[in-house]
Design goal:
By secondary structure, the protein is an alpha+beta fold. The chain is built from nine helices and six strands.
Length: 230
């Protein structure tokens, strides 16, 4: 990782397009130096640039600009149990995890960039059973707080709640509860879609920071529900 972060570039997206069309080991090894320059290093510099803003926005979450084990998700796909055996991911995935993420299933912040889609996701995708029950129970216990979070004007303008839901109320929960549609959710994830071209703009990082700030009440609720600090 060298130089100063100047934003993602058309070359970053062009490489991902070419990788999608040539998703094999020989092609990737031949173009690995280019990958490291226009994708890997750019993404790591973005993460490095996010360290201070993230510490101010959400102090318990970590921006770690390392090639392995940090905030940048690996380009190599785990194909052991997958039908799709192509070896490489064709997107940039950046995840800012909670400082306790190794010990508990906690919420996180996620940035996805590929030539066809750019979005920010916040929250918990398919949380484990204990965490999922904790979120549902907190909604039951604090329905007014939950409604203030998800009905907030700024939140609704920015985010859409995503993920699958149960067809019936989960066992032990009142089917007539005022928030039953949210209690039936399998994931508690909020997504903001960007135009692909937005990631090439000089102020894209600031747009991501603003998005993270607007998610604060949602993330605070989830952190409290799974008993971790925000």
């Amino acid at each position: 990782m060298t130089g100063r972060y100047r934003g993602f570039t058309p070359e970053s997206l062009r490489f991902l397009e070419e990788l999608s069309a040539n998703n094999n080991r020989n092609w990737f090894l031949e173009h690995k130096a280019r990958y490291e320059e226009v994708v890997l290093d750019t993404a790591l510099l973005f993460i490095q640039n996010m360290q201070q803003p993230l510490a101010e926005i959400a102090p318990s979450f970590v921006a770690m600009p390392t090639r392995v084990g940090g905030s940048l998700m690996r380009v190599y796909r785990d194909t052991r149990f997958a039908r799709d055996k192509t070896p490489y991911k064709t997107n940039i995935g950046i995840q800012f995890r909670h400082e306790r993420a190794k010990d508990v299933h906690a919420p996180g912040y996620y940035l996805h960039i590929d030539p066809g889609q750019v979005f920010v996701g916040v929250g918990m995708w398919r949380p484990q059973s204990d965490a999922l029950r904790g979120i549902r129970e907190r909604i039951v216990a604090r329905p007014a707080e939950w409604r203030r979070v998800v009905d907030d004007r700024d939140f609704r303008r920015c985010f859409t709640l995503g993920g699958e839901s149960l067809s019936r109320p989960p066992r032990g929960f009142d089917k007539d509860h005022e928030c039953i549609d949210d209690i039936k959710r399998k994931s508690f994830i909020a997504v903001r879609e960007f135009d692909v071209g937005d990631c090439l703009k000089p102020r894209f990082q600031q747009s991501v920071e603003t998005t993270f700030r607007k998610a604060e009440p949602f993330m605070r609720f989830l952190c409290a529900a799974v008993d971790v600090r925000f």
